[in-house]
Amino acid sequence: MNKILKIIIIIFFCFFYQFTYSFTSEEKIKIGLLVPLSGDNKEIGKQIIKSSRIALKDINSKNIEIIPRDTKSNPNQTIKSAIELKDMGVKIIIGPVFYESLNYLDEIQDIIFLSFTNKNVNLPKNIISAGVNATSQLNTIKKFIEMNEIKKTIFLTPKLDYEVEIKKAIQQSKIKISKHFVYDTEPTKLTAQIEKITNYKVRKQNLLDEIKRVENSDLIDKEQQLEKLEKRYTIGNVNFDSVIISDFDESLKSVITSLLYTDVSPKKKYFITFNQWFDDSLIREKTIQPIYYPSINRSNLISFEKKFFNEFGEKPNYLSLLSYDLIGLIYYLSLNNELKDINKLFRKETSFKGKIGIFDIKNNKINHRLNFYQINNGNLKEIF
Fold it and tell me: How many CB atoms lie within 10 A of CB 348?
């Protein structure tokens, strides 16, 4: 009799477990979306919502619900909207967009925020930076340096608010840097600093001394040598093989122009910079080429842009592609029934292949495996 009772109990628990599991696996996944839907940045938020619609269409599951809320690009409104989402049963939120909007979000318990920011310094435990961060970019640059057996690399960082972020990324990536310089973005000060870094005045004086020596000599080919020297700007090498410049747009071009002025050429030294998002103006500037940088998968970006344009008649911003991937990532984790304990969700080591590239997740951090590109002679080429 006891044996029969035990069998009945076992059957009951097996049935109960199956019922419970099937219920949780079919339970609707509520994903909050904290984006600006009013104010100056409303177009960013609207495009993110549009990309989430494409993601839902591609996933084709009735178990996902996207609940957008307006942040108005304001920290106080952001926390109000986050609390509203929590009251609706949301446990995971994509957003906010801006780093400044992360204030006070650590006060909201049992919710994970996948922020669009690429900053990793001093983030609360419940906020995960999902943007293309400096560590991911330096990991990719490190791979390129090792592939080409580059011996000496210097690092140039502007004196701006992300200076600390860069220093931390250098440590985390374990990239070998011979010297790290922080420069002033004011043009006159910048040029003076680059002259010092490249030992320009000594190299310039070397040329003047050599011209004088040849002029005072009795060399048979004096005129030919002087003609060659007049075409030069300096004599002597700089003490590096590659330079990494963590800058963007016109400021980046100013740094490169200063390097060219001091007779450091990208044809003789590797000029490497951070993710430029396929900036067309760099392709047009042939005088600063070749130049190298890490970025997202360009083929996937082009494919997504076409899909987005066909759907909405406009070109998406880059955050739209990231939001598309983040919805896919959450759905991927839900398939493994990993959404039960939200606080452990991003601690486990796992990888996810998105449109941007491969997401590597571990210890509440997301890094991206990026591609690496070269711009030369007005053409963009994928290196790896």
Answer: 12
Of 28-42, 88-102, 335-349, 352-366, the poorest mean pLDDT is in 335-349
pLDDT of 339 strictly over 50: yes
Unique residue bearing structure tokens 């949780």: 24
Domain 29-131+298-368 fold: Rossmann fold (3.40.50)
Residues 6+ positions from 369 with CB-CB distance below 8 Å:
136, 139, 140, 357, 358, 360
Q: Percent of the chain scored above 90 by pLDDT? A: 82
In this prediction, residues 170-188 reach a mean pLDDT of: 96
**What tokens does 196 get?**
């010092």
What's the rounded Cα separation, in Å, for the pair 109 and 107?
6
133 close to 119: Cβ distance less than 8 angstroms: yes
pTM of the model: 0.89
Please list, residue by residue across 259-290, b when 16 or more beta carbons sit within 10 angstroms of its beta carbon and e when fewer do.
bbebbbebeebbbbbbbbebbeebbebeebbe
Per-domain boundaries in the chain: 29-131+298-368, 135-295+372-382
Cβ neighbours of residue 326 under 8 Å, at least 6 residues apart? 94, 114, 130
pLDDT at residue 338, as a whole number: 65
Domain 135-295+372-382: which CATH number of 3.40.50.300, 3.40.630.30, 3.40.640.10, 3.40.50.2300: 3.40.50.2300
Q: Name 303's bridge partners.
A: none
